[in-house]
């Protein structure tokens, strides 16, 4: 029975059950669900199950192979650590949204066809939005709105692509796409929006740093890594992804260096790290794909650890800008140590998890003779150490002491960080269990003397550059313009234009049809008989060229009108004619 | 969110002392030197070009890359940076 139980079901049932339980029960539940799901995934047999029929197609909710299982493992391990970190929360809605969000991402990973994938994809977008909304500030609400709009756009691209693809091929299968045409490009675009590829990346650095302390930690793992999974499944070996990945890797670094907010630095470094993965997917060889899965696995863990240490700082100080922080090592030494372990792991420092996964991608590129890929990824590797490896811990925990004296965060937060720090160290020195769950056999030895020495040189001299150029890296109280400018400013511009154009038209119409024309008509019908006669006379006089008696005759007419000497019937007739004309004109 | 904000005791202020920082810097430079030394005594493999086998190639590569990244970021910063209330 357990070998065909769907792991996402546990999360989705948990999200519902949460509303019925008291606090202690909820705390047990959020830890039990990921643990149980992990056990369930270990027991899943390769194949597909949970078939159902929809729109005349046979669909499958549960496709099990090494690739989906590898992502299932890390999603559940990370979920356990994240919920341990968020154990202090007393509210129900945040945990419920998080459980549904993680459940939907597991559903997407195990979905065997495009329609099931799409359904989970949209549930992810909606549920994750609540993790931003839960912050309950005006900024967070704005960011959440933009976040969900961008994901609706991406989801619609995906849906359009899926519909066209199903129409063209008659199949809902979700395997590698060969055909390069509109449907597959639309699907690719939908995936890339969630993978945060520029120029569709701004939602990530906009929304994640506005999420709650715990929501930010949870969000880092799932949306982008589900996209990485779907890109592996559908687009392995598409060369364009090498270019996209290289752009992402460099883009993430440059923006992270410009950033002041510590969680935004980490958000940009997600884009940088996903860039390595997307590039590996573009390379597409067995080694590259295994490298991508290994890197996604390690990345989820050290990135959650980094967000936890940043989250702890935010939780204890209420501040997240580097210009407000500094010197925290004095009173938050454990948080500093865990954060630094995460920072060294992301920099692929020998001995930590990044070192046993990322070089696989670079080496796969070297095997294919891709010189420029090697060059860009090596530069990006040096750059990672710069922004996430040193900059984050340096400006938050060391640098200038801003006089903040917060204590360590609550014990469950420290325990969650310790757990993930342990994984970073463990996978760094003993990666064999990780290599065993990868989709393809791996023959990769990270720890040759030469490779390790090269890596140490690369990183330590990057550090030298950092400290020598420290004056250039001084933090400023600024934000940087990203591609969200187009819809943040563009949206306002569009609003302004629409306001001017439509409301202008509106007030012009109001002036003309409500004020002027009825006014004119009202004046005319005060004395319709004399007015018609006067106009008739004026016309005749102008036509004849003789205006000598016009004035006298007009006075006579006005006099008669004042006396009321016109027959009533005349202007009743005129009114009827007018109403008839109106009826003919207005009612076509 | 800040209900648990509390003043905590300073565990260490090791980095506040200039003497410690001087020692740290000296140690850092020694490590940098030691990392390049083995390159002179071992045969290094190359991936694409012979220049990779030069002693200290990766040291130089890391240093130059980072300087370039910092300088380019700084220049882009003049273009991209705005006040924090830019969107408000």
Automatic annotation (TrEMBL), chain A:
InterPro entries: ComplexI-like_HydComp, ND/Mrp_TM
Transmembrane feature ranges: 6-24, 29-50, 70-87, 99-121, 144-164, 185-204, 235-258, 270-294, 300-316, 328-349, 369-392, 413-435, 455-473, 565-587
Top-level taxon in the UniProt lineage: Bacteria
Residue ranges of every copy of the NADH:quinone oxidoreductase/Mrp antiporter transmembrane domain listed in the record: 111-377
Major location (coarse): membrane
Subcellular location: Cell membrane; Membrane
Coiled-coil ranges (or none): none
Keywords: Cell membrane, Membrane, Oxidoreductase, Transmembrane, Transmembrane helix
Membrane topology: Multi-pass membrane protein
A Pfam match: Proton_antipo_M
Xref: NCBIfam families: PRK12668.1
Name of the protein: Na(+)/H(+) antiporter subunit D
From TrEMBL, chain B:
Name by which UniProt lists this protein: Uncharacterized protein
Originating species: Desulfuromonas versatilis
Spans traversing the lipid bilayer: 26-43, 55-80
Keywords: Membrane, Transmembrane, Transmembrane helix
Top-rank taxon, per record: Bacteria
């Amino acid at each position: 029975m357990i070998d065909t139980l769907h792991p996402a079901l546990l999360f989705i049932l948990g999200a519902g059950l949460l509303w019925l339980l008291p606090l202690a029960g909820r705390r047990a539940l959020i830890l039990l669900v990921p643990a149980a799901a992990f056990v369930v995934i270990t027991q899943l047999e390769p194949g597909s199950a949970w078939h159902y029929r929809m729109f005349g197609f046979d669909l499958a909710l549960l496709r099990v192979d090494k690739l989906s299982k590898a992502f299932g493992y890390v999603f559940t391990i990370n979920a356990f650590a994240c919920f341990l970190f968020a154990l202090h929360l007393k509210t129900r809605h945040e945990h419920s949204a998080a459980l549904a969000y993680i459940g939907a991402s597991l559903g997407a990973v195990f979905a065997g066809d495009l329609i099931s994938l799409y359904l989970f994809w949209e549930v992810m977008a909606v549920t994750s939005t609540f993790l931003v909304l839960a912050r309950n500030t005006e900024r967070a609400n704005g960011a959440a709105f933009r976040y969900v709009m961008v994901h609706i756009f991406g989801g619609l691209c995906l849906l359009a692509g899926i519909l066209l693809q199903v129409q063209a091929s008659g199949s809902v299968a979700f395997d590698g796409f060969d055909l390069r045409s509109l449907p597959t490009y639309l699907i690719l675009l939908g995936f890339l929006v969630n993978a945060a590829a520029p120029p569709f990346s701004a939602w990530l650095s906009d929304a994640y740093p506005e999420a709650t302390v715990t929501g930010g930690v949870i969000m880092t793992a799932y949306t982008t890594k589900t996209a990485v999974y779907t890109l592996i499944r559908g687009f392995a070996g598409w060369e364009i992804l090498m270019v996209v990945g290289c752009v992402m890797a460099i883009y993430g670094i440059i923006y992270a260096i410009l950033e002041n907010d510590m969680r935004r630095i980490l958000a940009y470094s997600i884009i940088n790290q996903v860039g390595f993965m997307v590039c590996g997917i573009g390379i597409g060889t067995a080694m590259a794909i295994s490298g991508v899965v290994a890197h996604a696995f390690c990345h989820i863990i050290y990135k959650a650890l980094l967000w936890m240490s940043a989250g702890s700082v935010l939780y204890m100080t209420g501040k997240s800008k580097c210009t407000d922080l500094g010197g925290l090592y004095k009173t938050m030494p454990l948080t500093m140590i865990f954060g630094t372990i995460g920072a060294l792991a992301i920099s692929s420092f020998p001995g930590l998890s990044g070192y046993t996964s990322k070089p696989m991608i670079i080496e796969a590129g070297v095997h294919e003779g891709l010189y420029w890929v090697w060059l860009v990824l090596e530069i990006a590797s040096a750059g990672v150490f710069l922004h996430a490896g040193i900059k984050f811990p340096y400006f938050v925990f060391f640098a200038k002491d801003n006089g903040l004296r917060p204590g360590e965060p609550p014990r469950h937060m420290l325990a969650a960080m310790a757990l993930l720090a342990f994984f970073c160290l463990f996978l760094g020195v003993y990666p064999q269990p990780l290599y065993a769950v990868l989709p393809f056999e791996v023959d990769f030895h990270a720890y040759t003397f030469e490779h390790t020495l090269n890596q140490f040189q690369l990183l330590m001299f990057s550090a030298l550059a950092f400290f020598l150029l420290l004056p250039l890296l001084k933090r400023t109280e600024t934000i940087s313009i990203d591609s969200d400018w187009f819809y943040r400013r563009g949206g306002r511009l569009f609003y302004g234009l629409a306001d001017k154009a439509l409301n202008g038209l509106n007030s012009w119409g109001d002036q003309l049809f409500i004020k002027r024309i009825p006014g004119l008509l009202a004046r005319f019908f005060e004395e319709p008989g004399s007015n018609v006669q006067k106009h008739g006379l004026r016309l005749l006089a102008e036509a004849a060229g003789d205006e000598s008696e016009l004035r006298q005759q007009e006075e006579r007419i006005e006099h008669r009108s004042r006396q009321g000497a016109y027959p009533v019937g005349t202007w009743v007739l005129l009114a009827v004619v007018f109403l008839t004309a109106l009826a003919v004109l207005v009612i076509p | 969110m800040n209900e648990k904000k509390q003043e905590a005791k300073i565990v260490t202020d090791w980095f506040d002392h200039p003497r410690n920082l001087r020692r740290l810097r000296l140690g850092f430079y020694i490590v940098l030197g030691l990392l390049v030394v083995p390159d002179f005594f071992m045969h290094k493999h190359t991936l694409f070009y012979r220049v990779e086998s030069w002693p200290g190639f990766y040291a130089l590569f890391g240093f130059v890359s980072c300087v370039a990244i910092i300088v380019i970021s700084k220049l882009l910063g003049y273009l991209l940076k705005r006040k924090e209330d830019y969107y408000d």
